[in-house]
Specification:
This protein is of the alpha/beta class and 246 residues long. It has 2 domains: 79 residues, no CATH class; 109 residues, Ribonuclease H-like superfamily/Ribonuclease H (Nucleotidyltransferase, domain 5). It has 9 helices and 7 strands, in the order ββαααβββαβαβαααα. The chain is globular, with a radius of gyration of 20 Å.
């Protein structure tokens, strides 16, 4: 069995860690790698380099495996702890290019910008119905109003799925949902686009649970308030990952 000694800075203190081949690293390192990759537009190799700068030797393939194994579990835990979503929903679609073909990405958010649902599909037909139905059942919350753009498919979906809910179609009222696509576009460029529909759906499901948690609405907060909010959110993240601050 091969083992070696590395120096790592964990929890603000320098520690020596014995890394044994085939044995996982401490949870703090795994949680930190997942957090860096999901929060910032970094590649696996860039996260590998950042960990090496901290004295932790780990391959980018290992980081990829950690993000695939733990990312969705962390996202699910964070969703359970987030505040109750608002009663007003915004639904919007955007094109993503996958293997040279345009695919549809549907995203629903509440009036506060919290992501309710993400759906990637190859075709337009009936997808607004599917996404609206999933979002309307989110945490059992009944939306009193859905806001969309003027795409005709939304009107048809509204009549089929939830005709009793108010539906507002406007070119300008749906900026909340349209702005929510920006972090996805940043990651799409950093990743050189998604490889498949499954890849996009898997990544965005975890990304939409972790990234917003670490992205408070900074423009509404003073510097002191921002630090307090981030300290609370880091504490929640460390709690659900079972780690100390890294």
């Amino acid at each position: 069995m091969v083992s070696w000694l590395v120096a790592a800075r964990i929890g603000g203190r320098d520690r020596c860690i014995v890394v044994v081949e085939g044995v996982p690293l401490p949870g703090e390192i795994i949680a930190l790698c997942v957090r860096l990759y999901r929060r910032f537009p970094l590649s696996f190799r860039e996260v590998e380099a950042m960990m090496l700068a901290r004295g932790v030797v780990v391959s980018y393939e290992t980081i990829r495996a950690w993000c695939a194994k733990f990312g969705q579990a962390y996202a699910n835990q964070l969703r359970r702890r987030r505040p109750r979503p608002g009663d007003k929903g915004h639904l919007d679609e955007v094109f993503v290019e996958i293997n040279g073909a345009h695919r549809y990405l549907w995203r629903a958010v509440d009036q506060h910008g919290s992501v309710l649902d993400v759906l990637v599909h190859a075709e337009m037909r009936k997808q607004p119905e599917s996404s609206s139905a999933n979002c309307s059942r989110d945490r059992g919350m009944c939306r009193v109003c859905w806001v969309t753009d003027k795409l005709a498919a939304y009107g048809a979906a509204h009549r089929v799925v939830m005709p009793s809910v108010q539906h507002r179609q406007s070119k300008y009222l749906n900026n909340r949902a349209e702005n929510s696509h920006q972090p996805t576009r940043q990651r799409e460029r950093a990743m050189k686009r998604f490889k498949s529909i499954r890849h996009a759906q898997t990544f965005l499901s975890a990304f939409s649970g972790i990234s917003p948690h670490l992205r408070p609405r900074r423009h509404l907060l003073s510097a002191a308030e921002y630090r307090l909010v981030m300290a609370d959110r880091f504490a929640v993240y460390n709690e659900i990952t079972g780690t100390t601050a890294a």
